[in-house]
Structure formats: structure tokens, C-alpha cells
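Quick one:
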Amino acid sequence: MKHLKKLVILIPVIIGVGLFILMKTNKKPPVRLEDQERVQAVRVISLEKTIVIPRSTGYGYVRADRTWQAIPEVSGQVVFMDEQLKKGYFIHKGDLLLKIDTRSYGLAESRGVAEVMDLDAQLKQLEQSKKNTEHLLVIEKKALVIASQELDRKRKLYEKQYISASDMEKEETNFLARQTLVNNLENALTLIPTQKNALLARKKSGESSVAERRLDVSKTEILAPFNGRISRVNIEQFQFAPAGTIMLEAESIDRAEIPVQLSPREFFKLLPRDRTKAFGQIPDIETIRRAIGITARVRLPLLEDRVIEWEGMFSRTGEAMDPATGTLTFFVTVDNPYGNLIPGKRPPLTTNMYVGVELSGRSLKDRFVIPRSSVHGSHVYVCTTKNRLEIRPVRVELTVEDLAVLAEGFSGGEKIILTDLVPAVEGMKLLPELDNETMEQLKRRAAGERI
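Output:
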């Protein structure tokens, strides 16, 4: 029993020693592995010249191109009010919206007409008086000649003492009375032109008063100046409307306007590159608009996959920079903002609607476009013909959304690396995979297509 226990202990030891000797005998020397260069798989695009349309996007609130306030120039009670005169209702050019009571102005007009008629009668009477006076003056002048001759005859008789002194005095008195009458008639004729001028002046004043009263009567009717939409009503029928108060407001529906603020950098990105001729004098807005050639498109996002668009027109810029934000205001107009209205699908472009505005400049030809994410500071990663990494310095001419337009440093055909390499070691081995689909999308987006 004692020997059996020793065998149980020794047998595993002997087996272990045998296995160790066997492994030692069959052991092979370590294999020396040669150094292998690491290869990085990357996505690349092949540079091709394409057309680029510079674009900048801003946002703003829609407002009406024209607004109108109905402010009466005369006072009175509102005797007529259109039933459709409510906030949000549409009006058409020439529609009668309000009418103020004309009775007081009509009575004033009648009084003025009566005064003018009275002055006409006085003028006719004065003309007739002139004729009568002229006729009477002719008669009195003849009588004065006869009286003068009679006075001379009586004076000779008196000298010869054929008549008394009293008869002589009577004849002189008669002559002086005739002479005074002639003088009075001549004075009366002299004053007639002055009297006529005074009556004509009063008549002209009366006619002006009548015209003013008629103008007041015409001002009692408030007509719609354009096709629009009521935005405010501040009057009721039979209410007294004082002159100078705002009775209602309306906005034009023929054109909408959106002010958009852009930084100077975004603005100059839209300007043409080949503009070298300076203006000889201060140009008008139309000349400036033709020179820079900016177009606009207004967008209203309704859902993630649904955007409503309107063709816009760059109309003008603000007169000064905004000192608070350092931006310049651009005004974009949209004609017929209520056109192509489809209830439930396409809304109108209404006031205070927040929209995006894409401003586009003139197209640039033969440009190289890459994703902005492929520009690392002032360098891009290029895959050489030997599939090695080249870190090449570049200058970006402009950026459009998430695209970068390269100004120089390339001739075409270079493979630009899209993959972000960390770390990026000059000369590292690459395994390029050409991504033609991305390049086609870049070209389409650079040309202004929405994908």
C-alpha cells in the first residue's frame, strides 16, 4: 500500500518531464517578420472645371410694397361704409369705401354760387351805368357849349348895360352848374374801371370759394387707390370722422417686399469679378441693378420635405450700414405674391411671414469646387499618382453654402481626398476610392440646383 502511494505521485511527475523534453526537442526558432507600411483607405474625387453661381442666403419678414392710410381732409358723419370693409378683406382700385355727409359742404357751395351770380348782376349793371353815363356826358357837353356861348353873349350885353347885374350872375351860375355836371360825369366814368376790377376780384374769390367747396364735396368720398387688403379699420358707420384721423389702413397685394441683411463679405461675394469700369457719375438704382446682376429666390419651408418658392427681384440696397450689426440691408420684391394660390397647398406671401431669401450673382466659369470640409485651414489633402498623401496649400476664392471654390493651385485631374485623415502625414500610403457620385452632386449644387 505504501509503494502504491509513491507510484501515484511519481507517475504524473515522470509524464510531465517527458512532455517537457519532447517540446524542447521539437521547438522551432522564432520567425522574423519584415516591416510592412500601413495603407489608409480614402474617398477621393477627381477635380473638374465647372460653373459656379455665387449665392448668399438671408432671412427677413415679408411686408407690403405699398401701404395706405385713409385720412379724411374734411370732417363729418360717415353716411356710407362698404359692408366688406373689415380687416383681412380685399379691395379693388376705385372701389367706394367710405362716404362722409356732404350737406354742410353742399350748402356752402350753394351760397358761393349765389354770391357769384349776384356779382355777375352787379357787373352787368355797372356796364349799363357806364353806357348811360357816356350818353349823358355827350348831351351835357353840348349843353355846356351852348351855356358858354350864352354866357359870352350876356357878358357883351352887360358891358353895354343892356341887362342888369343879376341877370349876368344867373347866367354865370347856370354855366358853372353845367360845367360841374360835366365834371361829375367824367369823374364817374373814370371810377367805373376801378369798380369793375373790384367786382371782378370779388367774383374770382367767390368762384375760388365755390371750387373749394366742390373740392370738399369730392373729398367726402374715400376710394381705394390700388388693389389691396384691409389691415386696420378704425371707424364705424354714422360715426363722426374728424379731419386728420386714420379711418382705415390697407396694404397692396400687387407686390411684396422683403428686407434682408447681409454682411459686406457676403455682399461682395455676389458681385461680378470682371467689373472694371467705374461709373462716371452717381448712377440710379436701375443702373446699379443691371451692373451687379443679382437675382433672388424666396423660400418658405412648410415641412421638412416641402418648400414653397417665389421668383424675386433685387430692387435696391439700404442707404447705410447698420451700426449695431455691421450689415447692409437688401430689399427683394416679389410680384403678384397672391398668384398661383392653392388653398391647403400653396399659401400667399403675406405680411410678417418669415422667409429665406437666396441671392445669386452672375455665374463663374471654369472653377474647381470641393466640399468645405475638405479644406483644412489653408491646405487640402491630395492623393498623388503614386497613391501618396500630398498636403497642398490653396487659396479659397469664395464659399457657397458648404462648397469651397478654389482660386489657384490646381490644373485639373487632381484627386482631392474627402476622408478626414487623423493623423495626416505627408507621403503616407493611400488606397483611393473614386467617388463620382459626390463629384456630380458638387457640380449640380455649384450650378444652383437643389438636391
